[in-house]
User: Fold these one by one.
Assistant:
Number 1:
Amino acid sequence: MAGFLEDRMRLFRFLSVIHFVGNSFLKLCSFTSVVKKYVCGEKEQIVLDGKRKRMDGEDETFAREVEGFFYLFPEFGDVERGFSDFHNFSLNCGKPIATVLVSTQERCRMCGKALAVDPNIHVVVIYHEQRGTYLGSRVTKCCRTCKIYEHYGYWTQEGKRHYNDDCLSNEFLLSSEDTAFQNTLVRQCANFLVVGAVPFATFAQTFNRRFGYDGTSKSNYNGIQSVPAVKRMKRYG
Ligand SMILES: [Zn+2]
């Protein structure tokens, strides 16, 4: 088998798998085999007897390549762990861009002209189910002729806000000019509220406690640099 690291498409597929599952698939040869087939695009092999299959020569070669890759780039084993590094790096550069919320709209919805991108970046506090609270940025696009401003998930004209039909299928919901919630977190909270499991204040308290924002822990749970306390979810609790 040719080295998969030399093939860009295979490398892309490999990195996407690593993003989803980390390197834990190396622990079981049947898992390694599935990943190898996905990365290398080989035909599925049906195992009829259901017994643990021994690694064949190609699987072993693939596993050795992956192990070599992780030896050289151990941080790829946990992409999410690298998030706080990049977040803190972007904060220190004065541009919090670990998450950038920008509309995918390229042309004005009224006149069809290409939208201009506002060079002024607005900082947004982001509430994330796994990462806790951190700073990101939002970018505005506009049509100067129609005075339409396109934001992530909604657009405004003459001061009126119009939500896009698909705004709930975005990863984030921009709930105010400086606040965005990950939609899975919103759904989780709504779920608790609907079944009457916990009031919002309790949900907010558990979020703050989980990430060490409740004053019981000096350092953040996930190593993300501190965001001013006033911006924590308890403000909304
Ligand atoms: Zn226009």
Number 2:
Amino acid sequence: MKPLLEHLLARFKRVQQDRKRRIFVIPKWENQLETNEPIRIAIFLFFIFFCIVLGLFATGHVTYSLVFLSLILTSCTAMVLNLSLPKIFYSNSKLLLVFAVIAINLLIAKSVYVWSIHQPGLESRAIYFYVSTAVAPLLVTALINVNAGVIVVVLSSVFISLLVNPSIPLLASNLLSGIVGVYFIQRICQRRDILKAGIAVGLTSLVCAVGFGIINGGDTDVLIQQAFLSIGIGLFTAVLINTLLPLLEEIFQLNTDFTWLELSDLNHTLLRRLAAEAPGTYHHSLMVANIAEAAANAIGENGSLCRVMAYFHDIGKVINPQYFVENQGADNPHSRLTPAMSALVIISHVKDGVDLALEHHLRRPIIDAIQQHHGTSLVYYFYRKALQNIEDCRMGVKILNMDEGDLPEIDESRFRYPGPKPQTKEIGILMLADSIESASRCLEKPSLKDIEQLVEDIVSQKLQDHQLDECPLSMKEITEIKKSFVFSLKTILHTRIHYPKNTQNVEKSSGGDSESSERGPVALIQSKEGMEISSGVHS
Ligand SMILES: [Fe+2]
Ligand SMILES: [Fe+2]
């Protein structure tokens, strides 16, 4: 029995060892489906058909004017999207989402309208006025962006006014409540933000309804009823968005701030494993998350996304934690490896990270962050060590009077991360924050000048190495990011910061004779050393 168990165990281990590492590749069919032109045309045709069917509810038969109107409206929508939101126009899934939410809006509006006109006495109270028309723009804002939300406000308001109920007050109310809703939902951090947006929509509808009611000489009891109904519609909008948002997130594989809030839970299996098996890396990731989030917020980018990316960026280090300096004790396993082998182990944390992220079904932006956070940087520490070894061999060759041509060549590409370079602003910020956090650990009793020098050196080094060439960060934004890094590091290193003892010292410092100015070159060397370590063992 025992040999059988041992045999099974050995076989299981072998199967585990033989397991191929997962590689992140977008399937060809997915790309084709996303950009296929016939599919895009089919979406437009289907929407025209939907508009015609919607018109049938009232007339009962297809008229030329209805077909023509649907055709004109859909063509206008296509042109508006092509001109103002080409990224949505050329992405079939996003285009489908925009049309799907406009269709939901139209369907609700038409249902309420058809029902209300068949209720005796209800038309005078204009109950069809109170339709939750802000649903489409609010959903699009939460799932795509504010610009798309504003375009959808205009499109859905015009569609409702032309296909459901031709009313100027209704058009004005829909436009205003939609824009107000978009304003309130543009950055949602908590569920209650959706409720706030819903209430804002309700209050705007109330102001419009009461305003138009007074102008048209409406009864007081009708106005009071309309006021309550408006608030109810606003709350219903919030409930509907809360219900539809997670569903649409999953169907269209889109991410909202809620996605990042859920992923920022430190109880995630992978993060718990990182904390247990690589505590140094875990602590480093938390620090990088704070620095990167603050920098992203400083330039108006998605701080929550940056935080989550930072949590998972070094997750691959759980495979061989002892090979990374932040997890090492007295023993350094690299002393038993060649520089090339050490570099291979260091570089593999990116591929291992992608493998783990795929295994745990992490979202695409997180996988991209793991893959791109080192770009094509050089593992400088081990590259320099390899060069040093060759230099030592050259000396030996000279002493032994041998041919220098026998010396092996050092291939620099073997010491570089495979990339790609950061493709988004958030990953660019992550790359810089990662290197800066690692290097900052080499600073002992730094002055503010040392911190500024460290940030300046690392950012310049990444720019000179062309690591940020494919990332859409502007120089103005990089300047803001640097300021944010200095502020964050000042807060993190607060207890270590060396302050001048009195004002005399400060005066001396400006005269170039202070402790601070004497420490300047030392700090520079330390920071440069930090950079080397950061591109090598550390980060
Ligand atoms: Fe790192
Ligand atoms: Fe890393």
